[in-house]
Design brief:
mainly alpha, 13 helices
Amino acid sequence: MKATSSFVKFINESSLEEWSLARNPNTDPQILDELSTSQYLSVKHVVASNPNTRPETIGKLFASFGSDIHLGIADNPSAPVQILITMLTQGLEEGRDILLNVLAKNPSLPEEALTLLRDYDSSEVRCAVASNPNTGLGDLLELALDSNRTVKKAAAANPKLVDLSDYLD
């Protein structure tokens, strides 16, 4: 533990060095734990988005910080599903399109959550849902009939619909 602390103290001399280390998906989770307490919000954001960050650390960041950190968590495929669902609920209540768009791209978001976003007002959110590998076939078929051409194209490009062509002979 002392070696890790010494290393983090060394890199604390520069926020850019902290940011680079926090961004690296191979950074040790213990170092990411320490970086999560950085004085720099940008470093905390990147720690929150790093797939190697421990679920407990993500939970602490979620509880302690606002929307900048939430966007990092929403982008993290290793984020605890319960936190993603909580952010989805908050995002829907508050109409936070940017957060919902990032969440809709997260491959760990469950199919039921993606169904909630399928009919959302923002075409960017619907496009993200159409691109997500967890989106159910029924939702993809609905999105393939969307009024927005970009959403239709995203649904058509989803591997679940591409594979469906094998059954339509």
